[in-house]
Write a structure and sequence with these properties.
The protein is of the alpha+beta class. The chain folds into 2 domains: 1-114, Aminopeptidase (3-Layer(aba) Sandwich); 116-228, no CATH class. The chain is built from 6 helices and 10 strands. It is globular and about 55 Å long.
């Protein structure tokens, strides 16, 4: 193992391992290097207070630690909110953490790994995260979808929907959030979000899978734009 290997692995463990998220504790596992020196695969499990670990990882991810001044860190994850725990009696316990504080805390942890200018990409499909998939397919601005709004609440202000692969390395469909590099960039990105939502509302499209209170978010963003 090189020094770079050890440092990146240590960074991920400091940021993601053994963290309290609701009634669970995170467990980082299977950290390994991929194609590039700066790239690591990892899995994040949840453990209950009595030591039961989720049968599958709640997060499977790739973290790229950045390269030089211009290539910022990024992370791409598969998020599975449906936990399956097996107790000592071999009984299966199913828990859905969607729209809970556990989900919020997990994405807060992931966000903390990404610096200004960095990106977090979350894979989605009709099988997994169907509400987000349907809303994006119908033309909704990403921030008005469940995954987009989750990214917004955790510091990401610019969005891109990778709804098709532009080359052989892009992988599955994913929603990308990017953190603003500075306050000026944040102002520009919020202005763009306000315009996107305004245009969408004016279209009067009947889109399924949107967040519950679109108009409230639009008002908050508009006020933030005006005060910037």
């Amino acid at each position: 193992m090189t020094l770079a290997d050890a440092l990146i692995g240590r960074y991920l463990r400091i940021e993601l391992d053994g963290k309290k998220v609701g009634n669970f504790i995170t467990e980082l596992s299977n950290v390994r290097r991929l194609r590039f020196l700066e790239e690591r695969y990892f899995e994040l499990y949840l453990k209950s207070k009595n030591g039961l670990r989720s049968h599958r990882p709640v997060i499977r991810g790739i973290f790229f630690s950045g390269r030089g001044r211009w290539v910022k860190p990024w992370m791409e994850v598969t998020y599975d909110p449906k936990l399956k725990l097996i107790n000592v009696a071999r009984r299966v316990i199913l828990i859905d953490i969607s729209n809970t504080e556990v989900e919020e805390h997990i994405f807060n942890l992931l966000s903390d790994v990404i610096p200004p200018g960095g990106r977090l990409m979350v894979e989605y499909s009709l099988k997994d995260h169907s509400e987000t998939a349907r809303a994006l397919e119908a033309g909704a601005p990403p921030i008005l979808t469940k995954l987009g709004y989750l990214l917004w609440r955790n510091g990401f202000t610019s969005f891109k929907d990778w709804y098709f692969a532009e080359g052989w390395l892009e992988g599955n469909t994913k929603l990308q959030g990017e953190k603003p590099l500075n306050e000026e960039a944040k102002r520009r990105q919020i202005k763009k979000l306000v315009l996107e939502i305004k245009k969408f509302l004016a279209s009067r499209k009947n889109v399924q899978g949107l967040i519950p209170d679109v108009h409230r978010l639009y008002g908050e963003l508009s006020r933030e734009e005006e005060s910037a």
